[in-house]
Amino acid sequence: MVSSSVPGFESFEGIEPIDVNGVSLACLERGEGDAVVFVHGGISDLRTWEHNVPEVARSHRAITYSRRYARPNEDIDPDAPDPWQVHADDLAALLPKLGAAPAHLVGNSQGAFIALLVAMQHPELVRGLVLEEPPVVPLFVSVPPKASELLRLLLTRPRTAIAMIQSVVQQVVPVTKLFERGEDDAALQRFLLTVLGREAYDALDDEQWGRLRSNVATLRAGMLQETFPPLTDEMVRGLRSPTLLLTGEHSPAFLLRLTDRLEELIPDVERREIPDASHVMHADNPAATNAAILDFLGRTGASPSA
Description:
Rossmann fold; globular
């Protein structure tokens, strides 16, 4: 992964707190033109986009923010729930407050799921979507999945079922048990290893580990509480926003199979693979990710600033 070197991001310098839905969210903005809003994933914050926002801001109004409970915002209370629908409601309130609607939304992982929810629930707020491997598990099974659901999936979509079972066995069960025992650091390490893969995991430097550990409470809440909102094929088929799906060359099979299903369902969709990258592709290979984003913006109605 690329290490931090962008002024303002490493220290949250220049952020503006914006109050929505009873919380204060740290926001950082660069550039002028049509709005492009970046939505980070779990165990992360606005700093994850440090090598993407400046490049997009050369031609657009690029905005990133830390979702509720992410640094430098107030932390989540121990054992408190953290449903993703609340984050979608925050984003839906934030866009008009910033005068950014309709915006292109660029989301990674959980942030991509949240961006998808907003586009389905508030189509007037969204011009287009760039989604990096949203974990759209509810399209297939409950969370956590029932054995009967996995068996049915084995009969209808065996590749997806096998990848999902591997994820449950290798990630969900052991990570949840580690959090239940209070071994948060070990849980974080196990989660990242299974999501990023060995090469990207080994490439994490001390600064990146510090950022991840500072946001580990959000991962703990997500693993121990019910977080996923309902999501159906019909909801996704009704999506009106043009959508770019991005996957990493080395991403886990589980996430690739979920993206396969989105590609089948979304009416106006295209897909690109980012080379030399895993699940956090915008950090692994920012040059290729930025090029894909800017090409998509140029073809889907986000006009560059004059």
